[in-house]
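A common beginner's mistake is to predict each chain separately and then try to dock the pieces by hand. The better habit, illustrated here, is to supply every component at once so that their relative placement is modeled jointly.
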Amino acid sequence: MFKQPNLQSHNSGPNSSGQNSKKPKLIFAAAALGIVGIIGLQLVTAKKNSGGQTDRNAPAAGSETVEISMWDQEESENTKVMDDWITRFTAANPNIRVIRQTYPNEDLRTKYTTAATAGQAAELVWGPNDIAGVFTTAKLIQPVEGFVDVSKFTPASSEAVKLKGATMGVPTTYGNHLMLFFNKKLVSAAPATTAQLIEEARKHTNAAQNKYGLVFFQNEPFWLVPFVGAFGGWPMAFDAEGNARVELNSDAMKSALTYLYKLKTVEKIIPKECDYDCAKGLFIEGKAAMTINGDWSVKEFQAKLGDQLGMAPLPVLSETNRPMTPMVSGRYVFINAQIAPAKKEAVSKFINFLTSREIQIEVAERLGRIPSTSEALNSPRVASLASIQPLIAAASNGRPMPAQTEMRAAWDAMRPVQQKIMSGDMTVEKGVEIMQQSALEKLAALKN
Amino acid sequence: MMSLSLLPAIAEVLRLLLMVAVAVSAVVGFLWLNYKYWRSEYYLGVMALISVLLCAELVLVLEASVAGALFIGLLPLAAGLLFKKVIRGRWMIPFLFAAPATAGVALLFLYPLVFEFFLAFHKLNLETLGDWIRTGKIEFVGVKNFLEVLQTGSQTRESFWLVTARTFAWTGINLVFHVAFGLVLALFLNQKIRGTGIYRTILMLPWAIPQLIAVLAWRGEFHSAYGYVNHLIQIVNETFSFTAGSSRIAPLEWVGFKPQEWWTNPHALFASICIVNVWLGIPFMMVVSLSALQSIPKSYYEAASLDGASAWQRFRNITLPLIKPVMVPSMILGMIWTFNNVNVVYLMTSQRGGSEGADILVSDLYKQAFVYNRYSFSAAYAIVIFLILAVLTAVWMKSSRMAEDPARR
Amino acid sequence: MSSIEKVGRGQSLFTHAFLWAACLVALFPVSRIITISLRPGNRLLSSDMSLIPDDATLASYFNIVTQKPFLQWLYNSLLITMTTSLIGVALAASAAYAFARYTFPGRKSGLLFLMTTQMIPGAMLLLPIYLVLTKLGLNNTYTGLVVAYSVTTLPFSIWILKGYFDTVPRSLEEAARIDGCTEFGAFYRILLPLSKPSLAIVFLFNFTQAWNEYLVASTILQDPRLRTWPLGLYELQGNFNSEWGLFAAGSVLISVPVVLLFLYSSKYMISGLTLGGVKG
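With all components supplied together, the output reads:
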């Protein structure tokens, strides 16, 4: 069956040449040296390429151009503004080049950690505060005190990246918090309490017609936390040294979950199932009277609803008479732990530019976010901006979002349980126990 | 309007082609020189010299670690010994032909495998990542990671065995439906009817559409309020229900055929992922079946018809045995692909790694590695998954007698 | 095409009905993507169920081409994919030739190893491949992507091609060898032209793999100018404010050429996919 390969005959050529005279030996030696040379050259050039990242900025002094990379996960509307800032910055600092790139969602974190393993990660990361915990645990970022005067930031905005006393990120915007949006065509004034909200929402709910009084991302813990706060709890507790402790198995958590479940099953003012896009879609279409969404959606809602859009802080929870407390953080710039010494000055310049009065006012005017520095926040221009004031009002009831790795474990532990409770597959009592246990396990898993 | 940058890209592609050509000719040339000169009395000496030079360069110029330099640097000497003692000038043609591909596979499959084995016995996670990057040192932990993988799990993390069982169910369900539907469609398409070309074209669409796009579109359809799936279920239920007296009787709802909360209920979610993957995989099996069917000589059927065999008998006694040799390797491959299909599960179970309860082994693995940064744990996990799959494949191949000679002509 | 038998009228009707139903299922999500791409604004999930929305508009198509570097993404993808496919086919064909036509030590185990590579969970290769490519200085380059793609598809390609080569009679090559043709000549002039269907399949397989790949691309590429379309489109559907209309429009535009290529080569597919090979 098998082909009897004509092996022997093919090799007659090469075999015979070995016995030849001196000439082939010379060729042989030359070829061998050639191979050595090629391998060497290849390796040397490869080394140069991969080492380029660090080499090319070695002499920062003089006219040499310094390159800084910054990775973000912003939406394209915002990146246009950021690109404009970068253009202005490089115009003023011709020897610094800033390369900005967007990686959506989780990709930013994954990309950064992977790139860091090969020493290819960007100098700067522009992202949410929870990056601080994860990257600090992995020792991938460094405190920012040496790069910028941290006293110029509002305490609330720098609080969300404080880890054991050190500020791990540069606040650039403040907010990222949930607030209440309502359609003025359907609801005349914002409900101040949840009792009013439920009453108002009932009027606009008709599941058969796919109309609801209130819609929000009901299975996501970020939307649960304001209720927990209003019941007097918080997912995280801190000791005197600033160490975080996960606290999910609390009475407040139980009450909040029960409350949320009742909104769906007893009050029936929210849809049976609704994720982020669904909630946004219904509200924009005018099929939902009210929605809970973040400050990041203001621009889009304004564009779609125009004058009909109403904004208000989250209401006071009638049961406890306490306001709902959204988590507040913002956007931060984190600095790579392994930054080349030659780049430090450029990085510092760029960060100070981003937190300058001029840019921070633009944060309010163009990004539609709350500035992170006191100077800009108290400036008359920001104070007179009608678009920013509702955001500031809504943030005033909030609490800073913990940046510790513990919070990440808590999110991951809460999400599946919240889903199960909301779909009626698990009791609240059992759910909170599992949440707590799962958070601790996930935390342990992150650490070993 | 963004400006296009076309030329630099083409320049890079040309450089790339040149690079590949150089790499290929370097590998082939190196082998060829060995074949040419392995009998020379200086042969081993020169190879040793190359080895020494390479080691020196690696250590002195490139600042590689001594162990690494020895490993790479001694390769030419090893090759020399191999040529002198084992190969002795034989098998030149097949080696030259296979060399470039072998080099590529060694670089991007073999080395990564070795690397993963290394990781699996060490401790690389979020906490040790920074230190590893800086110092290159990680703690050796032995088989601890493997033990952790095999843990029966707790109340919170799904047990490894449960996920494994689900993975088997997932693979089985998908494979059965892929083959059944694929074969039936192929049988229909193989008939003498009008428009087979058009049918075949349309039926190939699920394979042709980029997966990312198809899966995300499906995900939208499974939304409980806005998706077509629940909408359709409702319509079907309305059609088959009737009113007796004052109560509405919908027989289909008794067997659980009613609108589901596909995204939140883990069982429904798992079902929806299966449906999507079945949809995606049918065309491949259809094409394989069709190619097998068309290779059966028509005369067999004619002879059988003359003997008065029924359609079922013809299928049973001619078609099945004749397409089996093509179908079995494809089915094994299909099994491997389904078992390792992380894309569909990952995209369907919310891309942020939220819902558990519908994870299969590889999607769980992906989350452990890239969401929780548990590199070592997931390396051990990957090895365990690989072993399960290897055993599964080996058993199947053995039972279908493919193992006699995997390289059968 | 060899069809089996003549079909009765009733049976033919049933066949048509069944195939029609199957086609509907196959077309279903496609129609939905088209619907979304025609919607104004950014609604993926809208309670609107009509196939073509009342307020249908081509704005999304216009916007994605003008506001996003969509053409650049397409161009990058096309370039990377074409190069990958060419290199992949060339490497696989020569290796498959060795496996199909010669016996040598390591042949069996080599084939087995190629089979085993299919069993490695793909995600696990990501980090080491990235480290290797970075060491070679191929981080953030087309070259890195092309190398990664053309090698990772090699095992499957080799298997397919080897299966097909096995079905091609050896006598032709042997005749050519007797006429003084070299091994390479026999391979290049005789075997390859005879193996067009399977080469087309392997080319297509490489093409679709590289065309659709996301994970490796997102790991290796950093420069936005180098981005391939999956990276670009994924970014569109990325953040909380997803631009679903643009995503859908981009999806349609991207699917059209691949689907056409796929369907064009489907005739090869029937004859070229010979995994075990009954024909030998």
